[in-house]
């Protein structure tokens, strides 16, 4: 997924579209957990999917799980304090987007049925237009990914392929979000 996302970002930058990278980072020792209760996904996901290798280190500050995977270029915006499933809560993403007068968010990455879906709901609740790129997201499994994309398209915004969006930017709006 990384190479296609990087290629999409390159074309989006060339079209004048701002890129925002979001990274989950939790402080060590559980201080980001409410009253010492681990995040829900750490408790519920293994019940359905089995043990998650390295789950204790996932998103913990200083671990390899907090390194950027997609390419971050000069001029890209970064949100490096995502502590829950949505990129909006409790980060400064809304502040950053509003200050740039950005009205549409285009989502790529993983997990479609978790972080992407939660971010799409929050973006919609913050009055952003939402686009999810079906070819640049991945879910827990095909069934949950399809369900999440169906929810987005029914309630929250557009689900489309990245090539369709790039074509729309190039031909009709000259790089401005649709």
Strand content: 15-25%
Q: Roughly how much helix do the residues carry, as a percent range?
A: 25-40%
CATH topology: Rossmann fold
Helix/strand/pairing class, anyone?
A: alpha/beta
Indicate the low-confidence ranges by residue numbers: none
Radius of gyration: 16 Å
Textual characterization of the structure:
The protein is of the alpha/beta class. The protein has helices at residues 2-14, 40-49, 93-99, 112-125, 142-156, 162-173; strands spanning 20-24, 77-82, 104-110, 129-138, 157-160. It starts with a helix and ends in a 5-residue tail after the last helix. The mean pLDDT is 90.
Give the topology.
Blueprint (H helix, E strand, L loop, with lengths): L1 H13 L5 E5 L15 H10 L27 E6 L10 H7 L4 E7 L1 H14 L3 E10 L3 H15 E4 L1 H12 L5
Helix pairs in contact: 4-5
């Amino acid at each position: 997924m990384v190479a296609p996302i990087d290629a999409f970002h390159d074309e989006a930058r060339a079209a004048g579209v701002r890129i925002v990278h979001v990274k989950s980072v939790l402080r060590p020792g559980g201080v980001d957990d409410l009253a010492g209760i681990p995040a829900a996904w750490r408790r519920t996901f293994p019940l359905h999917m089995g043990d998650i290798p390295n789950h204790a280190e996932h998103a913990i500050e200083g671990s390899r799980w907090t390194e950027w995977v997609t390419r971050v270029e000069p001029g890209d915006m970064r949100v490096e304090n995502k502590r829950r499933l949505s990129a909006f809560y409790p980060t400064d993403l809304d502040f950053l987007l509003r200050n740039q007068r950005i009205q549409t968010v285009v989502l790529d990455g993983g997990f479609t049925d978790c972080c992407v879906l939660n971010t799409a709901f929050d973006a919609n609740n913050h009055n952003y237009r939402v686009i999810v790129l079906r070819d640049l997201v991945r879910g827990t499994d095909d069934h949950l990914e399809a369900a999440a994309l169906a929810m987005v398209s029914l309630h929250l915004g557009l689900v489309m392929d990245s090539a369709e969006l790039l074509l729309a930017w190039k031909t009709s709006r000259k790089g401005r979000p649709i």
